[in-house]
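As agreed, record minuted below.
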Amino acid sequence: MSVLRGLVLLALLSGCSRDEATAPPHVIVLSLDTVRADRLGCYGGDPSATPRLDAFAAGSDRYRACVATAPWTLPSHASMFTGLFPFEHGTHGFRVDEYVDNVHPLHPDHVTLAEGMSAAGYETAAFVANTVYLANRFGLAQGFETYEVRRQPARAMTDRALEFLDTRGSDRPCFLFVNFMDAHRPYGMRPHAELARLPAHEHPAQLLERLCEQVMLDGEAPGPLGERVSGLYDEGLRGLDREVGRLLEGLAARGLLEGALILVTSDHGEAFGDHGVVEHGKDLYESLVSVPLIVKAPGQAEGRVLEPVASLVDVPGLIAAAIPGPSGSALRSDFGRLPGRHPVTTEVHFARPRELQLYGERFQRERVALRAGRFKLIASGGEVELYDLEADPGELEDLAGVAPGRVGELKRQLDSFLDAAAYQGERLLPAPPTPVQRVETRVLGYSGGK
């Protein structure tokens, strides 16, 4: 493994001068909340929607497939920060019969990427737009010297990140994490004044609520309403693309782009009616867990498409592989996972309170999926589903009944992996939300209403 990691490091640093290769690079991680891979042009989506992200990918390493570790924010970000799957770090939902926060925060005993980067001599800063599940009370601020949580649109997030880089007053390398929310409901982070001018039935959140009722309560196809809500999502994605492009341009203008390690990904996708699901957090189909993973190494100019199926648990390992010297070695000892060298799973543990209130028992279940090459096994209790993602990317034909041998083989692999590393530590409960956080919970759709 040490030889392989050394080869990865050499590959990442190819094209750098000797001085550049020995200096730790700035590291910037952009988490595009709720962005599903197939909506980016470089992943087969409409190229007019994401021209700046596509241009960035053209000069970077783009993983052909990356699987979120969960279909919602907190467990997926905990995986980005620890290199562990939710069943290993324990930060996931639990069953409840009433309206409470039913998710375990990240335990402080876990070593986070920010803690590792700080020990490696980095200044660590995070600017976060998800004010609900990335709030400090869920434990993800561990290791960050600066951790600002404020619900604001991508333009403000880009401004804040560039302001930080201009004023930080440190000669240490920087680890910067930025979370954007413009692809999350209510799609586009429009100013409140603009939303207030809309008739109630035209409000994006109300259109989305109608789609949820139509699909998940009435059992109807999404139809034109689904197309309209999907279009609102694309509007938010276009605005996000503009601001990510402006952030990259700002890095270039400051002489920081070429020598930095920059990683762009997402925590989960979004569904608009496929498999009877709207939004996210409820199931494990590709629209919910297939996310982009684009990595630009220091000095990299030519792009590559990489075949190993990646996971969000690989984020810390990919960063550690680019840090030279003893600091990099220490990071790699804590974060050794890299794409293609471990099983890839994704999981969801019971519904959040909103789903409990609105949809009864349907989403009150634990489901886990294993991605093995072109095949994907989903297991939930005693039920299984099997899909061939190359032949059937929409997961329309369940092969479990006609391929029992493959189902058995993949189920054994999955059970062995889960049993070997299941989290056995203390289960924490979150601190009560503040009044402002309760409002944000409603605005972001986790408790109904606008």
Observations:
- Residues 2-342 form a domain with the Alkaline Phosphatase, subunit A fold (CATH 3.40.720.10).
- The two ends are 50 Å apart (CA to CA).
- The mean pLDDT is 91.
